[in-house]
Amino acid sequence: LIGAFGMYSTALFLLLTMRLNAAVRKYNDAVGAFCGICAHIGRFAHQTQLYCTDKRVSTECTLWAYALSRAVQSDLRGVKGEECRAMYEHLLIAQCPKRSASQAEPPVEADAVHFILSARQQKDRVDGLIIATSQSTFVLQQLSAMLRVAFDRGLVTNIRALIALHTCVEAMQMAYADCRRVQLSPEPFSYASLMKVYSVLWAGALPFVLVPTLQMATVPMCGVLAFFVSKIDEISAELQNPFGFDISDVGMGAVNDRLLKELKQSLFVYNSSADDITGIANLVDGAIDAEEAIEVGQRGAGDWKDSEKLTRALGLGGRIWPN
After folding, report:
1. I need a surface site. Which of 5, 221, 270, 321 has the fewest CB within 10 A?
2. Which residue has the higher pLDDT, 7 or 293?
3. Which neighbouring-strand residues pair with 52?
4. In a 3-state reduction of DSSP, which class is residue 156?
């Protein structure tokens, strides 16, 4: 009996260990995926400061990017509809440029010269965001559309800058897909059920094995060992849903609060700068086409619509460029 129980105990603890390791690995994947979204949002914000020719456009894109992190949190926790309205309105609508009561609402085209979305458009987008089935997908779609409009209106320096910015959006999409993969990959129900049955059988047989040796101490020892096994099983089950509201789940609210502080600091420093971002460096392309002399140290020399033109004009690359 003791030998059979020993083999049973070994098999049970191996299964418990494997289950716990899988649960911890899933939890780490969840933390990495969500923190990856926040990292890509910070990267996107810094790139808009580098590539956008209007500071207010960069600020608006950053606000919508931060809205993505809150949208992912809402989607993963099942918070929908009007529960999110106040948060999005404060973040996206309250930041729009204010007009006096005597000023009429300008046409969309005129208002979007400095802001990709007008106040009216922002409200429409927020209304659409609140009723969207997937708020995260809606925000990602809006970011792509805003970048396209900004580029068409000359508010992004060049096509390579647009590609770099949208690469960040694609990275956000992939990180969000990883979060969904973790959330929608449940543990097999039969496996979890069998583990509970095996644990109960083990706890029931434990006193018969220990009583010849421990006698009166069998009761407290069985209680301690049964509690230990049950807690291991409970921890494994709890970590299967890392995006819930338990104290041990991923702290998405704390991560988002930290991201908000970082973006606030970044935007404050960026908008406090006295340097105007005009995109005038793109005009140097005309000088390159005219085969005029270009100095490497010239202001804006690092910003070119076509880096091949720059390489050809400066004679770089160690090759003969064809005409």
Report:
1. 321
2. 7
3. 156
4. strand
Residues in CB range of 155: below 8 A, 6 or more apart = 52, 53, 54, 57, 116
Say how far residue 223 (Cα) sits from the centre of its chain.
Answer: 44
**pTM score, two decimals?**
0.73
Distances (CA, A) of 300 to 53, 282, 283, 295: 12, 8, 10, 10
Question: Is there a contact between 135 and 91 (Cβ–Cβ < 8 Å)?
Answer: no
Structure tokens that stand for 70 in this block: 């809150």
**pLDDT tens digits, residue range 125-184?**
888 888 888 999 999 999 999 898 888 888 888 888 999 999 999 999 999 999 999 988
Q: What is the pLDDT of residues 13-71, one digit of tens each?
A: 888 888 888 888 999 999 999 999 999 999 999 999 989 888 888 888 998 999 999 99
**Residues 69 and 140 sit within 8 Å (Cβ to Cβ):** no
Going by pLDDT thresholds of 50, 70 and 90, the confidence category of residue 275 is low
> Cα(first)–Cα(last) distance of the chain, in Å?
90
Residue 157 contacts residue 281 (beta carbons within 8 Å): yes
**Helix H or strand E encompassing 308:** helix 307-314
Asked whether 250 and 178 are in contact (CB, 8 A), the reply is no
Nearest to 64 by CA among 115, 5, 6: 115
The pair phi, psi for residue 167, each rounded to 5°, is: -60, -35
Going by the DSSP 8-state scheme, the letter that residue 118 receives in this structure is -
Contact 47, 272 (CB under 8 A): no
Evaluate whether 22 touches 192 at the Cβ level (below 8 Å).
Answer: no
Contact between residue 165 and residue 156 where contact means Cβ atoms under 8 Å apart: yes
Angle between helices 55-77 and 159-183 (to 10 degrees): 10
